[in-house]
Amino acid sequence: MRALFVLAVVVVCCCGASTQAAFISRPEDIDWATVRSIREKPGYRGTGVQFLPNEPEPSRSERILNGVTVGRGDLPYAAAILISEEFATYFCGGVLISEHFVLTAASCVDSAQDLSITVMLDAAQINQAGEFVAVSEITVHPAPSDNDIALLRLNRAARLNGKFLDFLRKIYNIRPVTLPNRRQRTMTFVNQLASVSGWGRTASNTNEALPLNNLRLVRNHVMSNFNCGVSFPFQISDRHICITGDSGSACAGDEGGPLTTVDLVTERTFLIGLYSFTSFLGCGMGRATVHTRITEYLDWIEANSDVVILDNWDA
């Protein structure tokens, strides 16, 4: 797998505008009934051909399909992202990669102007999220239509496991995800079991407002890009990694959510993708999902964040 070297960045500041929505600092500040999938945002520019021409986009009820609920602390790197405009709030997934940075899909934030963006952490139950952090800067890949990845800089350090204990003696279940090392750049991960998580669609909760309260996870096997290209003609490149939909799939509201796998030698969980898009037929059992392949962006991530990419985890 070839490495992708990108030096240029697009930076959008998301603070200081007079029309900016107020920062959300607690669950009580959110009217969940008004929160929408990022796909419902006017001007939304997702990657891939996701819907048939003239077909309506999925309704607000679409979520991680057939996932299982995870407990607090099981996915300490999972991030819920609220993108607030003056009269609307939209939702995406993301993943904490350091105390100060979150990765998400470029399609969630590439048109962000005069926005207030809030990252929620320790949010296995989203209505009891333990940490709310404002975003001070957005760094979008300079070619977002082909590279669905963006970095969010937090305006303060996240409260990590064992590092912060507030005056109420509250313990935070927050920890950055492990990123691939440079040795893994050429690995395809084909046939490895991978997990995608989010607050999106479930088959049993189709009438609930977005996002679902409980964080959910589904596991499927990584498929080859050749086989993935059969389902997505002329859309799959080295920048993508696909998983089957045999056990369920990600859906609307899960954009930017983490795709992880476990290293067979060290048994370490690490990030291999960010959910990007699925079939124009919609998300459903048996349909593959397409994710941004993280190993293609290691240099870009290191150049635009405080993360150091290791040559080898043992180094």
TrEMBL record:
Residues 1-21 form the signal peptide. Keywords: Signal. Residues 64-306 form the Peptidase S1 domain. One of its GO terms (molecular function) is serine-type endopeptidase activity. GO terms for biological process: proteolysis. InterPro entries: CLIP_Serine_Protease, Peptidase_S1_PA, Peptidase_S1_PA_chymotrypsin, Peptidase_S1A, Trypsin_dom. Belongs to the peptidase S1 family. CLIP subfamily. This is Peptidase S1 domain-containing protein. It comes from Anopheles dirus.
